[in-house]
Recover the amino acids of this structure.
């Protein structure tokens, strides 16, 4: 997928190329295929969009263009045609292009009817949202496409394309981590020891963070992590020592470091956040295989900046958590299923408020409405009491930040922010709370949220044309290690501050509960009333008790056994 900066550049070039060009019969297909490919990054636009589909009226007619995946019908006219005026049809009737398109729409099978109708004469796009059939069209001008390209985002299913790509990249990243994990494990003296496995998990989390940080530009110079360690590739003992030293440096403020260390290690930023704070983890000897995996396969050979933190958290945990490795397969809630829960719970309402703000004509009132919405989003607090690797929290954070970025786009209009020194971002990972019993999953969840935060900060930078500092980490994800059924949730987040409880608690049928799980349920339900209930019901009961007399909304992924 193209970055926002790349899209603006592509949109500018597209508008320049098509200025003053536009014959309906000869140029339509080239125009739309070029737009989809160059501006919106569709790899095979000819497979993505159809032209000249037949539609039977009292005579055979043809739909100029149709995009099945996003249900967009396109009515194309030549450059000299006024899209608001009626045009005589072959049957003698006079219809506006919109009336013509609606007539086609009615004759289509119900499932194929368009959500969007777009009229174009090569220099204007008139966009009709058929969910608002009486509304005036939104008009986008070719000459303004560099600034307004995002108003045509509905042409492509960005979420589906992005998720598919991110899944591929994240699975590949998980495979790399698995290879590295196995190579390191062989070097430990006590590979089955619980302390060994904990240390190895921490080591892998740190390495992944470094891989991501250098590819995302967080360390500064490109390939900084790789180039620092590459100097020691011929000496495994020096490689190990240098890695240990680097981890120590990443947890030291610049003024607390040994000033006589080499310049290349002192150039690394202070990370903070606790990721590198533990200095007693055992790092085993490294051999040529491990050095090759770290330098050539994971660092130089893979772009970690493209991973999805939502997906990768689950893939990472499934790769490294001994429990999930033994059970096989990946254990995470898909992005699609997360949205089935969070969209009706709160996102649909927030997006509707955003759309209402966009329709306000008076600029100062519109901007106030947008700023109020940004403040509202930044005030919400979320709890996942079965956080796992943080899928729900991470995807919710990403979704809210994307909405915040849309707000910032409207407020700043892609203009250079002159003289601004404050960070305009208000949504923070501090708004997100989680409880997870597995210590490794807690580390993964925190790291996933940091990665998500850095990705969204980059998107904000593209919008406001301002460099923002990611390090040192100042935001902390409030993810607590512990048994959610035994902890007092109000100790984690006061109920008068919380807005939403959500997640995917573990499902264990009542006949498969172990002694510890039975004891958990006894602590939640008391002496009776739980014996035939599935283990997951404990989260429902705990939530119900917690939200009593409070306006807190709760939604969990569940099975039909308890509904």
């Amino acid at each position: 997928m193209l970055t926002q900066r790349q899209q603006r550049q592509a949109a500018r070039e597209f508008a320049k190329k098509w200025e003053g060009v536009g014959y309906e019969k000869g140029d339509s297909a080239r125009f739309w295929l070029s737009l989809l490919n160059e501006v919106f990054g569709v790899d095979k636009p000819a497979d993505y969009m159809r032209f000249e589909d037949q539609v039977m009226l009292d005579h055979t007619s043809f739909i100029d263009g149709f995009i099945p995946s996003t249900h967009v019908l396109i009515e194309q006219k030549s450059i000299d045609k006024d899209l608001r005026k009626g045009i005589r049809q072959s049957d003698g009737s006079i219809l506006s292009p919109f009336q013509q398109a609606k007539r086609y729409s009615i004759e289509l099978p119900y499932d194929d009817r368009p959500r969007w109708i777009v009229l174009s004469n090569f220099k204007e796009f008139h966009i009709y949202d058929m969910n608002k059939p009486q509304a005036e069209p939104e008009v986008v001008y070719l000459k303004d496409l560099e600034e307004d390209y995002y108003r045509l985002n509905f042409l492509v299913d960005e979420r589906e394309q992005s998720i598919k790509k991110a899944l591929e990249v994240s699975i590949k990243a998980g495979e790399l981590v698995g290879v590295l994990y196995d190579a390191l494990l062989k070097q430990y003296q006590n590979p089955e020891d619980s302390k060994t496995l904990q240390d190895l998990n921490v080591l892998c989390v740190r390495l992944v963070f470094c891989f991501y940080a250098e590819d995302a530009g967080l360390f500064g110079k490109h390939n900084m992590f790789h180039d620092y360690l590459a100097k020691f590739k011929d000496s495994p003992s020096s490689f190990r020592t240098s890695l240990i030293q680097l981890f120590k440096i990443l947890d030291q403020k610049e003024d607390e470091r040994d000033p006589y260390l080499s310049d290349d290690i002192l150039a690394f930023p202070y990370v903070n956040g606790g990721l590198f704070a533990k200095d007693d983890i055992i790092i085993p000897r490294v051999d040529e295989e491990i050095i090759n995996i770290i330098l050539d396969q994971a660092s130089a050979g893979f772009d970690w900046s493209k991973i999805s933190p939502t997906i990768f958290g689950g893939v990472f945990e499934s790769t490294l958590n001994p429990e999930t490795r033994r059970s096989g397969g990946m254990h995470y809630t898909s992005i699609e299923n997360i949205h089935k829960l969070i969209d009706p719970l709160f996102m649909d309402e927030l997006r509707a408020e955003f759309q209402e703000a966009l329709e306000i004509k008076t600029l100062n009132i519109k901007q106030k409405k947008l700023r109020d919405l940004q403040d509202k989003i930044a005030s919400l607090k979320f709890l996942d009491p079965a956080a796992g690797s943080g899928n729900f929290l991470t995807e919710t954070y990403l979704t809210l930040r994307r909405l915040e970025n849309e707000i910032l786009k409207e407020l700043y209009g892609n203009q250079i922010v002159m003289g601004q020194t404050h960070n305009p971002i208000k949504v923070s990972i501090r708004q997100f709370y989680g409880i997870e019993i597995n210590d490794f999953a807690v580390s993964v969840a925190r790291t996933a949220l940091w990665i998500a935060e850095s990705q969204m900060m980059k998107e904000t930078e593209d919008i406001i044309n301002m460099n923002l500092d990611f390090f040192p980490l100042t935001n902390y994800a409030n993810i607590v290690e512990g048994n959610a059924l035994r902890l007092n949730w109000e100790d984690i987040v006061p109920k008068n501050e919380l807005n939403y409880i959500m997640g995917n608690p573990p499902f264990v049928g009542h006949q498969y509960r172990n002694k510890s799980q039975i004891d958990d349920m006894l602590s939640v339900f008391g002496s009776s009333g739980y014996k035939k209930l599935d283990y997951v019901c404990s989260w429902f009961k705990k939530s119900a008790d917690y939200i009593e007399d409070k306006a807190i909304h709760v939604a969990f992924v569940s099975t039909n056994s308890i509904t």
